[in-house]
Specification:
Blueprint: H1 9-17, H2 40-58, E1 88-90, E2 93-95, E3 105-107, H3 117-120, H4 126-137, H5 139-153, H6 156-165, E4 169-175, E5 180-181, E6 184-188, H7 190-206, E7 209-216, H8 240-257, E8 263-267, H9 293-308, E9 315-319, H10 321-324, E10 338-343, E11 357-359, E12 370-372, H11 374-383, H12 385-393, E13 397-401, H13 413-429, E14 433-436, E15 440-441, E16 448-449, H14 455-470, H15 483-499, H16 506-525, H17 527-532, H18 539-546, E17 555-556, H19 558-568
Parallel strand pairs: 3-4, 3-14, 4-7, 7-8, 8-9, 9-10, 10-13, 13-14, 15-16
Antiparallel strand pairs: 1-2, 5-6, 11-12, 16-17
Helix pairs in contact: 1-2, 4-5, 5-18, 6-7, 8-9, 11-13, 13-19, 15-16
C-alpha cells in the first residue's frame, strides 16, 4: 500500500490480502513504523479486517463470520436527500415528521475540519501549525497540503462506509477558522462553507444525518488543545466581542441550513468550561472546578435566541459545563426543541487493566486501582448529572463523545472492547443517543486507522516516536512513563515543595505542569520539525503522502466496527 495511490476498492482488498508484515494499531500501538515480525494469527486477522473494510466501502458483502448489518430503521433515504425528514424533540425522544422515534447512532470525524494532534499526527495546535507550514513550505504549498488532507480525510467513501456499518448520524466537529478570519470578523469564508456543503450533499445522498458541532469557538471555550488553543487561555466567557462573533456565526449557519433536513441539529458549543479562563491549575480542575452558571446560561440563552430568529426547525443541543460533565446548574429547558449532550469517557475504556476486573488508571483525577464491571458502568451512567438532568426535565440525552483506546497493552484490547460494548448497551437500555469518538485516526481509538505502512505514517514515524517519548499528546496520558515524563513529574514535585502550599493537590499540580510544559510548550516547539518533513516535496508527492488518510487506504479496527455495527443496526 505504501507504493501508490490506490484505485478500485476491490483491487485494494486483493492487494491488502497479500500483506504479511503490516502492523494493525489495534494490536501493536507502540510500533508505528510498521516493521518487525508478526504471528500468523495476527496476519490472518489483518487480512480479514482489511478485506471486510474494503468490501464495505465497495458495497460488497465481506467474507466474515459476522452477520450482515442491516440499515438503520430511521427516517432516512439511501437514494436521495429529498426524502430525509426534519427531526425534532418530543418529550425524551427524537422523532421524525410523522412522529416516529429516530435513534441517532454514529461517530465523529474529529481531525477533519478541526485537527487534533493524536488524530492527525502533528504536534501542537492547528492554527500555529498552519502558520509554521506557511513559513516552511510557502503559502501556496502549505495551502495545497491542508486542502488535500481535508479532501482525503472525510469524503463520500467515508459516508458510504459509515452507512454500511449502520450509522444513522455523523457529528462533524468544526473549527470556526474555516468560516471566519480573525482579521475580518463577521465576514464569512465561502471556501469553508463549500467544503462543508459538499459533505452535506454526500450525507443527503446516502441518508446519513449530520449534527454540526462547533468544536473550536472564537476566543476559545476551554483551555485545551482540542479547541485549537495554543495559549491555555480561554477568552470567550469574558470578552463580549468574541461572544458577538460566536452568536453571529451560528446565525450564519442557520441562514444557510435552516431548510436542510439532512442536519439533525446544532451542537452549539463543544465541551464548554466557563471558569478556568486563565488555564488549568490545581484549584480549578477536576473536583476543584466550580462552574460559572451565570456565564454559560446567559450565552446559551443568547445563541439559542439568535438561531431561533432565523431557524425554528432544527434541534439545538446544549452540552454541560466542565467538558460536558456538569448539568445541574443549567437553566431548565427554555425552548421546545432542545436536547442535551454529555461526554461519557470511563476508566475501563482506557485502562490499563482487565475488564471486568481491576483497572490501574494513570489519570490524576481517577486515583488508585478500581474494580469495574457492567454494574459499576451502569451506576456511573445513571448517577451522571446529564442523566439526572434530562430525566428530570423529560428531554433527550445524547452522548456526543465516548470511546475506548487501543494503543495501550495489545493483549488488553479485548478488555477495552468489552468495556465499550457494555457501555453502549447501557446507553441503549436507557434511551440515550450516541456518537463515538473517533471515526479515523493514527491508531488510537478510530474505527479506521491509517495503515502503518502508508506513506504518511512512514514519513512521520520518527516524529511519532519522539512525541510519545516527550508526552506531547495530552490525550494519551494513560501511556506508560518515559524519562521525560518522569523528569517533568519530578519538576512538578520540586515546585510544590518550594511553594509549600498544603492546599494544592500534588496529583493535580503534576497534571497541570505536564500539560503546560509538554503538550503546549514542547508540542509547539516541535512544529518546525513536522513542517520540515514535507519541505521541498512537489504537489504530486504531497498528494501521494496525504492519500494515506483516504478510507480506501485505511485499515478497519474490525473488532470496534463489529461492536458499533451490532448496535447501529438495531431498529429505533
Amino acid at each position: 500500500m505504501a507504493g501508490a495511490i490506490r484505485g478500485p476498492l476491490v483491487s485494494l482488498a486483493l492487494d491488502q490480502l497479500q500483506l504479511t508484515t503490516a502492523v494493525n494499531p489495534r494490536f501493536e500501538r507502540g510500533r508505528m513504523s510498521g516493521k518487525g515480525a508478526e504471528s500468523q494469527p495476527r496476519r490472518e486477522f489483518l487480512k480479514l479486517a482489511a478485506f471486510s473494510g474494503a468490501a464495505a466501502l465497495a458495497g460488497k458483502a465481506a467474507p466474515t463470520v459476522a452477520q450482515p448489518i442491516a440499515a438503520p430503521q430511521a427516517a432516512v433515504s439511501a437514494d436521495g436527500g429529498s426524502k430525509m425528514e426534519f427531526l425534532r424533540v418530543s418529550g425524551r425522544y427524537v422523532v421524525d415528521a410523522r412522529g416516529n422515534r429516530v435513534w441517532l447512532r454514529g461517530t465523529c470525524p474529529g481531525g477533519w475540519m478541526n485537527m487534533e494532534d493524536f488524530i492527525n499526527g502533528h504536534p501542537g495546535a492547528e492554527h500555529t501549525l498552519r502558520a509554521e507550514m506557511v513559513e516552511v513550505l510557502g503559502p501556496a504549498r502549505a495551502q495545497f497540503f491542508f486542502e488535500r488532507l481535508l479532501d482525503y480525510f472525510f469524503n463520500e467513501d467515508d459516508v458510504i462506509f459509515l452507512r454500511k456499518t449502520g450509522a444513522s448520524v455523523v457529528r462533524i466537529p468544526l473549527n470556526y477558522r474555516h468560516f471566519e478570519d480573525d482579521e475580518a470578523p463577521f465576514k464569512y469564508q465561502e471556501s469553508g462553507f463549500s467544503r462543508l456543503d459538499q459533505v452535506l450533499r454526500h450525507c443527503e445522498n446516502h441518508g446519513l444525518y449530520v449534527i454540526l458541532d462547533l468544536h473550536s469557538a472564537q476566543g476559545w471555550q476551554n483551555v485545551h488543545w482540542h479547541s485549537d488553543n495554543a495559549s491555555r487561555i480561554s477568552l470567550l466567557w469574558t470578552v463580549s466581542s468574541y461572544q458577538d462573533r460566536y452568536v453571529a456565526l451560528w446565525q450564519e449557519f442557520a441562514r444557510r441550513y435552516a431548510n436542510r433536513a439532512v442536519i439533525a441539529g446544532y451542537d452549539v458549543l463543544n465541551e464548554p468550561c466557563s471558569n478556568n479562563e486563565i488555564g488549568d491549575y490545581p484549584w480549578n480542575i477536576y473536583s476543584n472546578y466550580k462552574p460559572r452558571w451565570d456565564r454559560i446560561n446567559s450565552l446559551f440563552r443568547r445563541v439559542v435566541s439568535g438561531i431561533r430568529k432565523i431557524d425554528s426547525r432544527h434541534i439545538i443541543f446544549l452540552e454541560g459545563d466542565n467538558y460536558a460533565e456538569e448539568f445541574l446548574g443549567l437553566e431548565k429547558p427554555f425552548d421546545d426543541n432542545l436536547a442535551y449532550s454529555s461526554h461519557n469517557y470511563t476508566v475501563p475504556g482506557f485502562g490499563p487493566g482487565q475488564y471486568p476486573g481491576t483497572i490501574h488508571p494513570r489519570s490524576a483525577a481517577a486515583g488508585g486501582a478500581q474494580f469495574w464491571d457492567l454494574a459499576r458502568q451502569e451506576r456511573f451512567f445513571l448517577d451522571a448529572e446529564a442523566t439526572r438532568f434530562t430525566r428530570q426535565h423529560n428531554v433527550p440525552l445524547w452522548v456526543g463523545e465516548f470511546g475506548s483506546v487501543y494503543n495501550g497493552p495489545s493483549d488488553e484490547n479485548p478488555d477495552r472492547l468489552r468495556a465499550l460494548d457494555d457501555q453502549i448497551g447501557i446507553f441503549e437500555r436507557n434511551d440515550a443517543h450516541w456518537t463515538t469518538w473517533n471515526y479515523k485516526d493514527l491508531g488510537v481509538m478510530g474505527m479506521l486507522t491509517l495503515d502503518p505502512a502508508s506513506p504518511y505514517m512512514e514519513r512521520i514515524g520518527d516524529l511519532l516516536r519522539k512525541k510519545r517519548a516527550l508526552g506531547t499528546d495530552d490525550w494519551m496520558s494513560w501511556l506508560p512513563p518515559t524519562p521525560v515524563k518522569d523528569a517533568t513529574a519530578q519538576l512538578a514535585g520540586q515546585i510544590l515543595q518550594v511553594v509549600a502550599d498544603p492546599q494544592l493537590d500534588p496529583r493535580f499540580n503534576a497534571r497541570c505542569v505536564t500539560q503546560a510544559l509538554l503538550c503546549f510548550y514542547t508540542g509547539t516547539l516541535m512544529q518546525p520539525h513536522y513542517a520540515g518533513l514535507f519541505k521541498g516535496l512537489s504537489e504530486t508527492e504531497l498528494d501521494h503522502i496525504l492519500s494515506s488518510f483516504s478510507a480506501k487506504q485505511c485499515v478497519p479496527n474490525q473488532g470496534l466496527v463489529e461492536v458499533f455495527g451490532k448496535y447501529m443496526a438495531r431498529p429505533a
